[in-house]
Write a structure and sequence with these properties.
344 residues; alpha/beta; 2-enoyl-CoA Hydratase, Chain A, domain 1; 2 domains; 7-stranded mixed β-sheet; 3-stranded antiparallel β-sheet; 11 helices; 34% helix; 18% strand
Length: 344
């Protein structure tokens, strides 16, 4: 009886294994050639920006896959994968080779050690050197006075809950009740949720304007995208600040920070100062290769209201002021000073 029971269990396990293969398919191969093709195919089917970027993805594969063979080392595969992804010039594309701890994460804006370095903005310099009446209702939102009658508001990201932004901005705009102008500092705004950006932009809007369209890849074909969605900015919340605003940006202003910037730029009382923004607008969900590496893929095609894509280009300021590392180290923020001067 026991032998019969064991045989039945073994037969059931074999049947289950066969069913799993039918339902799920064979596990992807993890040899170098298969991994390289898997990564190329994931981008081929899901990346939404080959058109705006002007990248021939087939040609890249034909050029590079011949350099991958069964004897390729992990480091060689890593370097060839970087060679594949680099021409996209997309800071939202990041490679995480976590299964190989000796290899750093990679993106076009990271150092060789996988670190992002900001040298043109330091919030501590702003706090210590320029602000009075500092308030910090949220860890990522601060406000105070940059000069008499000139307010200062810093927003680091759009990742929080909308009600938190609502409450913090209610406080800030009440605080700025008599202000003649406002510096809105987005120089390290790394993004978050586009609906949060849309709401925040509305707190500084005087009229409804189309500011962005978006569509997302939803199939393997080159033309497989969702229907185009239109994004409008209009006054939101209990009050708005519609007096002159200087928006400060840098190369670290990215993603939902840039969609916020797109919305703000439609308003006539707002002028952009500082440096060109990052040029990364799309959402970028995560995929995984058979060897355990993961990577983000920009699935969206986001455009300004005029139909132009600024992916990989960024939004240039009307008034360019480039901070230098040495000046910041000495406590001087020229971009902020220029914005204050303009508002005065």
């Amino acid at each position: 009886m026991l032998i019969r029971y064991i045989l039945l269990l073994a037969l059931a396990a074999l049947c289950l294994q066969a069913c799993q293969k039918d339902l799920i398919g064979e596990a992807p191969k993890a040899d170098p050639e298969s991994v390289f093709y898997h990564i190329w195919k994931d981008f081929h089917e899901n990346y939404g920006l080959f058109g705006p970027k002007g990248v021939d993805w087939y040609d890249l594969y034909q050029t590079l896959h011949q350099q991958v063979d069964p004897q390729s080392t992990t480091r060689e595969l890593y370097d060839l994968t970087i060679a594949l992804l680099s021409p996209l010039n997309d800071r939202h594309v990041t490679l995480y080779p976590a299964s190989d701890p000796e290899l750093p994460r990679w993106s076009v804006d990271l150092t060789e050690g996988g670190v992002y370095v900001t040298e043109d903005f330091d919030l501590e310099v702003v706090k210590d050197r320029y602000l009075t009446g500092l308030h910090e209702p949220l860890p990522y939102l601060q406000y105070g006075w940059a000069a008499p009658q000139i307010g200062y508001l810093h927003i680091q990201h759009m990742d929080g809950k909308q009600k938190d932004y609502e409450q913090a901005l209610d406080e800030a705009l009440q605080f700025f009740g008599d202000a003649e102008g406002l510096v809105l500092d987005l120089r390290d705004d790394a993004g978050g949720f586009d609906p949060i950006s849309q709401y925040v932009a509305g707190r500084f809007a005087s009229e409804k304007r189309l500011y962005m369209t978006s569509r997302k890849k939803n199939g393997p074909g080159s033309d497989d995208f969702t229907e185009t969605e239109e994004w409008y900015v209009e006054p939101t919340g209990t009050s708005q600040f519609t007096r002159p605003i200087a928006v400060l940006t840098s190369g670290s202003t990215a993603s939902a920070g840039e969609t916020l910037l797109l919305a703000l730029r439609t308003q006539g009382h707002i002028t952009q100062f500082g440096a060109t923004s990052s040029g990364n607008f799309s959402d970028a969900p995560m995929w995984e290769a058979p060897n355990g590496w993961t990577y983000t893929i920009s699935v969206g095609d986001y455009r300004a209201a005029d139909g132009q894509s600024y992916e990989g280009i960024g939004l240039s300021p009307q008034v360019e002021v480039l901070n230098q590392k040495e000046e910041l180290q000495n406590g001087q923020d020229k971009a902020l000073e220029k914005a204050i001067e303009w508002l005065q």
